Please model this.
Amino acid sequence: MKKRIEVPNLIYVCIMIVVFPLCSCNTTKNIKEEKSAPSIVNEVDETSNSQNCIESHTGKYSVNIDATVENLKKISAEKGEEVPEDQIKMMTGMLSQIELSITTDTLIISMWGSDEKMPFKARVNPDGNNCDMVLVLPAEKLPEGATEVIMTIIEIDNNSMKLKASGGIDKMDPFVWTKSEK
Model:
């Protein structure tokens, strides 16, 4: 028998625990200058090649709900879990409220009227095919044992992508993002 997975808990983990703690906590509702703790960031190649890798991905994205739900079902099935249909319906409403924006140096997640900004340095992934966003985080925001958090952009097609996280977080990996604006 497959174990039922509670989607509200999954969404809470994916968004509230994984994303928000990584953020600098400066939201558009509460903008004030804060002195932040020193950041731990590995040297990031600042060549034009690194800058070019992010430029084609700048813009606004919305969650591709169908593809994301399918990914969540697939990942759950691989773990012997099941996502109940009633919870999928509840989850789709929540996912429709999330927007992702990428500039040349900032990853912005907008949810329920609040923008969470995460500065990053772009670099070409060591595989040479993808673009990495190395998040610029204060040391206390890094996952335990991690020295950096990297979000690798995995292009699905010209308008869709996934973000593959490394550095101790992987809860955003199932999300498929579709470009809604440049």
Observations:
- Residues 4-48 have pLDDT under 50 and may be disordered.
- The two ends are 46 Å apart (CA to CA).
